[in-house]
UniProtKB/TrEMBL annotation:
InterPro entries referenced in this protein's UniProt entry, alphabetically: aa-tRNA-synth_II (IPR006195), aa-tRNA-synth_II/BPL/LPL (IPR045864), Anticodon-bd (IPR004154), Anticodon-bd_dom_sf (IPR036621), His-tRNA-ligase (IPR015807), HisRS-like_core (IPR041715), HisRS/HisZ (IPR004516), HisRS_anticodon (IPR033656)
Enzyme's top EC category: ligase
Family: Belongs to the class-II aminoacyl-tRNA synthetase family.
GO CC entries: cytoplasm
The keyword DNA damage is annotated on this UniProt entry: no
Gene3D superfamilies on file: Anticodon-binding domain, Bira Bifunctional Protein, Domain 2
Domain of life: Bacteria
Gene Ontology biological-process entries: histidyl-tRNA aminoacylation
Annotated residues for binding of L-histidine: E82, G83, T84, R113, Q127, E131, R256, Y260, Y261
Compartments in which it is found: Cytoplasm
Location of the Aminoacyl-transfer RNA synthetases class-II family profile domain: 24-321
Protein name according to UniProt: Histidine--tRNA ligase
Primary residence: cytoplasm
């Protein structure tokens, strides 16, 4: 223990569990890369105003959860609470929208929200996200949803449910908003919630308190107020998902915690996670580019939470294969053996074998313990007598079987034992 521990609401990723995080990032990003999404990386902090305007002045994220700071130069910055506003800012800054559309981008990184920490909710967390900028096409919304659903499936998750809704557009949402406000104003609600009715009435629909929920059963729904354009757009998205075999549940009460959404909105939830059940979410945000001072650029995207996806894997008992697990562990006894086997390990690694070595001059017994602990299939043991006979012992750690192999073709023998073709 040192004097310090990780700040509240954060945790460290350490081996062997950290391998699952890498595997999840890989499984989510691989389908995106195959679908033409290019990698984008933006700074970990931005001007506060970008998020205030982009995510929304009235959202919890902006009012309560941002880590803000004033630099020595007087700039007001915030650690990024999400990725969409930054990615859009970066694309507009680089004029990517002047080229071929849509611009399809993916990203992976750390995000920061000053939330009340609990299981699955952290102050520092990790997302992989995708944004498709500059096209209004139901097939693009469907593509993104399918890519996320396929990523969860590839990971072996079976209990992820997809909730789907449409939040309407600039034409029909204001009419619905007014109808919802009229309904909400007549209810028996506390002062904070009454204030929310005036600023962001849709968020009231998301209130988790039973006393509020009970009064919302007859609340008007966006679904019944969609204009013809939104209705037909949403129907096309639904049809494309059905045709792709992606199951979803229509959730007319699905409201997201960020203000920029229009039309298609969705969330992936996992029932094994308790109250923090959203493993990912996203939707269309046709007005965001203009909200941050750019041109009209209809866009759609999502972000999947890596931390919660790992929790979902644990909840379902899914074990991911460890990609770079040690295959061969070298155990030298004596200084000459060390030099010889160190060279062999380097050779094996150059041939693509995951190999490790008993460092620190351990005795045979301790070194064999390390070999067993490493999870390697094979141990390569070289003692003084072996060295004199110009052989090494290749031991199968599962069966205990051991064969002597000539030092001259050690690498070739190990590769053969691992069923690897020899590289030229
Ligand atoms: P979000 O729903 O705020 O959307 O976050 C996406 C995912 O990040 C959540 O479903 C959850 O898995 C994870 N997440 C969020 N907050 C936390 C937290 N405090 N601890 C652990 N995991 C968390 C967005 O961020 C949007 N930018 C998504 C998007 C992209 N929409 C369009 N494009």
């Amino acid at each position: 223990m040192s004097t310090f521990s990780a700040p509240k609401g954060t945790y460290d990723l350490l081996p062997p569990e950290s391998a699952d995080f890498l595997a999840v990032r890989e499984a989510i990003s691989a389908p995106l890369r195959r679908a033409g999404y290019g990698y984008v990386e933006t700074p970990g902090f931005e001007h506060v105003e970008l998020f205030a305007r982009g995510v929304g002045e009235s959202t919890d994220i902006v009012t309560k959860e941002m880590y803000t700071l004033t630099t020595k130069g007087g700039d007001e910055l915030a650690l990024r609470p999400e990725g969409t506003a930054s990615v859009l800012r970066a694309a507009l800054q680089a004029n990517l929208h002047r080229g071929a559309l849509p611009v399809k981008l993916w990203y992976s990184g750390s995000y920061y929200r000053y939330e009340r920490p609990q299981a699955g909710r952290y102050r520092h967390f990790s997302q992989v996200g995708a944004e498709a900028l500059g096209a209004e096409d139901p097939a693009l919304d469907a593509e993104l949803v399918i890519l996320a659903a396929d990523a969860y499936r590839a990971l072996g998750l079976r209990q992820v449910r997809l909730l789907l809704n449409s939040l309407g557009d600039a034409e029909c949402r204001p009419v619905y908003r007014a109808a919802l406000q009229d309904f909400l104003r007549a209810l028996d609600l506390d002062e904070d919630t009454r204030a929310r009715i005036e600023i962001n009435p849709l968020r009231v629909l998301d209130d988790k308190r039973e006393s509020v929920r009970a009064q919302l059963t007859d609340a008007p729904l966006m679904r019944d107020h969609l204009c013809e354009g939104c209705k037909s757009y949403h129907e096309q998205v639904r049809e494309l998902l059905l045709a792709a075999g992606v199951e979803f549940e229509d959730d007319p009460r699905l409201v997201r915690g960020l203000d920029y959404y229009t039309r298609t909105t969705f969330e992936f939830v996992h029932d094994g996670l308790g109250s923090q059940s959203a493993v990912g979410g996203g939707g269309r945000y046709d007005g965001l580019a203009e909200m941050i001072g750019g041109p009209a650029l209809p866009s759609v995207g999502w972000a999947l939470g890596v931390d919660r996806t790992v929790l979902a894997l644990r909840a379902e008992g899914v074990e991911l294969p460890r990609a770079d697990a040690t295959e061969v562990f070298a155990v030298p006894v004596g200084e000459d053996a060390r030099r010889t086997l160190f060279h062999t390990v380097t050779e094996l690694r150059r041939q693509g074998v995951a190999a490790d070595f008993a460092y620190g001059g351990k005795g045979l017994k301790n070194a064999m313990k390390s070999a067993n602990r490493s999870g390697a299939a094979l141990a390569l043991v070289l003692g003084e007598r072996d060295l004199a006979e110009r052989v090494a012992q290749l031991k199968d750690l599962a069966t205990g079987e051991q064969v002597a192999v000539p030092l001259e073709n050690l690498t070739t023998e190990v590769l053969a034992k691992l069923n690897r073709p020899t590289a030229r």
